[in-house]
Design goal:
The chain is α+β, with helices and mostly antiparallel strands. The protein is built from eight helices and 20 strands. The chain folds into two domains: 10-237, 3-Layer(aba) Sandwich (Rossmann fold); 243-364, Beta Barrel (OB fold (Dihydrolipoamide Acetyltransferase, E2P)). It is elongated. It binds adenosine-5'-diphosphate and magnesium ion (MG). Residues 19, 22, 24, 42, 44-50 line the site of adenosine-5'-diphosphate (ADP).
């Protein structure tokens, strides 16, 4: 350990997991800082659950090592790892009272009866359901049962809290409320948390760090802003948010900008973050929300911004925002999500589109 650096709470070093011929996780290196909330984000089947189950001790890595608090845990059985777990079917024991559900993990831990009572009471207060000890799970709503599952997981004061898509069975409104609930509880307790989800909004709204996965491989890791604003590749840009991908060629580079000729012949500027030179084939990634559209006749370009022309091909009104699909003329359309301004633009209407160079992110054409 480098002095001054805090030791990560959880470390994956060269983790690989095979099930027969299927490689579920491929050479994963990843650190999780103490007290942080990290999400494993990716489509179904990308290896998120497998990675989490290896931390839990429910699966053994085929290759590589897992460290918790600096200690290699590959051979440590599940009950000797001090972990709290909440899985998708968070199933409480239906025939046990809430008290017995929450106390479950403590009974195997040599905790006195009086201490168990104190800890259960505190855990129920933490999830804002004090006084429900005597009730049965069926007497609580889905959201309340979810909170009991959280109380059960935190009552043992785990080193790491593991959550596998815990909210995906809930309807959208409850999900949103529970997302905040998990986030607040995690911050209040300061417990290191690994949260698995395939929902980008969940990941963006809660995480200190996101690990984006595809086919068992790490695609990118970083905080929500960096993963969203500086996607490492096409997959990440596509998986998080509404992205436009505009192919082009680098035709010039100076200190501040990379000049890219796109398919329409227009030359757009992207902020120069290094790594590209003249002749490179690139993909310019622009989030749908970053463009501005104006009626062509009234358009006055702003110095330093990119602008080009198009026609409204399709639109979808969403209340505060409008989604426009804009034809650029050369069998190429872009998707813009625009705040509703004075009026809706009509289908076929000519518009001018503007976007700042720092919202144009370049990746090599794959
Ligand atoms: N016990 C198992 N036996 C065989 N294949 C498995 C097993 N568990 C997971 N897999 C496979 O490993 C891959 C990753 O699965 P999983 O970790 O469940 O993905 P995710 O949680 O991201 O949906 C998938 O191809 C899945 O079919
Ligand atoms: Mg899974």
């Amino acid at each position: 350990m480098v002095s001054g650096d805090r030791q990560p709470m959880v470390q994956f070093k060269g983790i690989l997991k095979r099930f027969g011929k299927v490689t579920a996780v491929e050479k994963m290196d990843f650190d999780i800082e103490e007290g942080s909330l990290v999400t494993l984000l990716g489509p179904s089947g990308c290896g998120k659950t497998t990675l989490l189950r290896m931390v839990a001790g429910l699966e053994e890595p085929t290759e590589g090592d897992i460290f918790i608090k600096g200690k290699r845990v590959n051979d440590i059985p599940i009950h000797k790892r001090n972990l709290g777990m909440i899985f998708q079917n968070y199933a409480l024991f239906p025939h046990k009272t809430i008290f017995d559900n929450v106390a479950f993990g403590l009974k195997y831990r040599n905790v006195s009866k009086a201490q168990i009572e104190t800890k259960v009471t505190r855990a129920l207060e933490m999830v804002r359901l004090p006084g429900v000890e005597k009730r049965m799970p069926s007497q609580l709503s889905g959201g309340q049962q979810q909170r009991i599952a959280m109380a059960r997981a935190i009552v043992i004061e785990p080193d790491v809290l593991l959550m596998d898509e815990p909210l995906s069975a809930l309807d959208e409104n409850l999900r949103e409320a529970m997302r905040r609930e998990v986030d607040n509880l995690q911050q209040m307790l300061g417990v290191t948390t690994i949260f698995v989800t395939h929902d980008q909004r969940e990941a963006l709204s809660m995480s200190d760090k996101i690990l984006v996965m595809k086919d068992g491989r790490k695609q990118q890791e970083g905080n929500p802003e960096s993963v969203y604003n500086e996607p490492a590749n096409h997959f990440v840009a596509d998986f998080l948010g509404h992205s436009n991908f505009i192919a082009g060629e680098v035709v010039g580079v100076d200190d501040n900008h990379v000049n890219v000729r796109i398919e329409t012949g227009d030359i757009l500027l992207a902020e120069n973050k290094g790594g590209f030179s003249r002749g490179d084939r690139v993909e310019m990634i622009v989030r749908a929300q970053r463009f501005d559209a104006f009626p062509k006749a009234e358009f006055q370009p702003t110095a330093g911004l990119n602008h080009f022309q198009g026609h409204i091909k399709d639109r979808s009104y969403m209340g505060g925002e409008v989604s426009y699909f804009i034809e650029l003329g050369v069998d190429r359309e872009i998707h813009i999500i625009s705040m509703m301004r004075t009026r809706l633009y009509d289908i076929g209407e000519a518009v001018s589109i503007q976007v700042a160079p720092h919202h144009c992110h370049l990746i090599p054409l794959e």
